[in-house]
């Protein structure tokens, strides 16, 4: 698993596993999630906290709304959630499904967030239209 998350992966894996075990024993219906900003992201702010304990029945869409609210984003700003720094899940997928398929070996679910600009668009559609090449 490739995770850009530097702060948490530097903690001993055994310690992280023990933390997840304690969390899951105390809150069996919650999912331990670590959320980090994509390393190339410059438009979106860092979150105040990176660890979340979320209900397993909520969807990725609901989780995305939680993250958007924490960052105080407006509706016009784009936000993409990447599981394990590479997979975009359907927003209708439940967190329990995401967790069962993509939980790290330490038991945390790692989610990275990014804006559209990180993926190559500056959001200016006019400049995109001007740069198109016509092939005859």
UniProtKB/TrEMBL annotation:
SUPFAM superfamilies in the cross-refs: Ubiquitin-like
Name of the protein this chain belongs to: Microtubule-associated proteins 1A/1B light chain 3C-like
Residues linked to a lipid group, Phosphatidylserine amidated glycine type: 120
Location(s), subcellular: Cytoplasmic vesicle, Autophagosome; Endomembrane system
Superkingdom to which the source organism belongs: Eukaryota
Family: Belongs to the ATG8 family.
Alphabetical list of Pfam families matching this protein: ATG8 (PF02991)
Membrane topology: Lipid-anchor
GO annotation, cellular component aspect: autophagosome; cytoplasmic vesicle; endomembrane system
Keywords: Autophagy, Cytoplasm, Cytoplasmic vesicle, Lipoprotein, Membrane
Record-level GO BP terms: macroautophagy; response to stress
Signal peptide start-end: none
PANTHER family: MICROTUBULE-ASSOCIATED PROTEINS 1A/1B LIGHT CHAIN 3-RELATED
Record bears the keyword Metal-binding: no
